[in-house]
Amino acid sequence: MSLFLIFNVIIFIVVWKLACVILRRGRALRIARLHSLRHRYAILIHMSFVDFPFICKLSLEFGLFRTYSIPSISRILFKSGNFPANSSKRYDDTEILVKELFMHHVDGDRGSIALRRLNFIHSQFKINNADYLYVLSIFVLEPLEWISRYGYRESTEPEKLAMFSVWHDIGVRMGIHEIPSTIEELAAYKEAYEREHMIYSATNKEIAELTMNLLLSEVPTFLWPIARKMAYAFMDDRLRKAMGYPKQPEWLSSLSHTILRLHGYAVRWMPPRPLSRAVLRIPPGCPVQQGACFDPCEIRQLLYQAYKPHHYEDGYRVHAVGAMKPGCLGDPCPGDLLLPLSECENILWDRSL
């Protein structure tokens, strides 16, 4: 290879990297001008579906898997019969309701329907406040922790505050008590809770196996043995023991984490994802409320399907999602929100960025 060609390759790499940095910096500056509370939905949708779609998706899947290592939670899932009978549909049900709440104000038209449907489903079981609060901490902390470990950059303070405030307000309307007032306090609660409650039980293993098979369904069958071992190796010792999974070699654990870190390194060499390419499975609609055209019986189409066999191929109605008594809704619980609906500005996330 001639020196001239080497020089041109170096110049191209430098210019490409500089262009990526400039473009990402420009996007970051536009986001920084948004208010972390009033515009929290625009900030969160960008973080979760534009900047870190792969990491956020995996983090929540792994986070939900983590909750199954709590015997009081796994027993409820097992006894309900819904999870063992059709784990892939339960995944769809959970994702739809969570994302509808994630992208719409909890007191808005659409967000309220999703919240009341979730409250009705939960009301059929005896769930203690400590378990509710632990699951809430998973939804807040897991994406942020994964971004910190595997993302191309750290999450920003506005992103952290937006994430915390959205889930804080969801927790209030779900009737969860004693929600910590800061992310740091919530993280301390999560750690203390896991030390005490993350222990082995047979239902942990049963639900974990159903979930593992579901996650492996997107992997070619001939890779299942190594993929399963890498999944075991990826787990921390506390989680692995609570699930009853065997310990794997340290080199395999390092390899599992390195593969995810490589994703972050690769993204650093890419320009920011165009907003038109956002990975949105659940249509966002309007981040605050639907207005006069809102129809609670509207059929919404998932933008793509995941985890065969597919569900809701003909669309879904928010108030009918879930296995129990479609159309039945609970009541939103009273309490002070960090950001009432009246103070949340009704901007469309894609137009603000």
Automatic annotation (TrEMBL):
Entry keywords, A to Z: Membrane, Transmembrane, Transmembrane helix
Keyword Cell inner membrane part of the UniProt annotation: no
Single GO MF annotation: oxidoreductase activity
Transmembrane intervals: 6-23, 43-65
Species for this entry: Ceratopteris richardii (Triangle waterfern)
Superkingdom, taxonomy of origin: Eukaryota
Domain ER-bound oxygenase mpaB/mpaB'/Rubber oxygenase catalytic, chain residue ranges per copy: 108-251
Identification of the protein by name: ER-bound oxygenase mpaB/mpaB'/Rubber oxygenase catalytic domain-containing protein
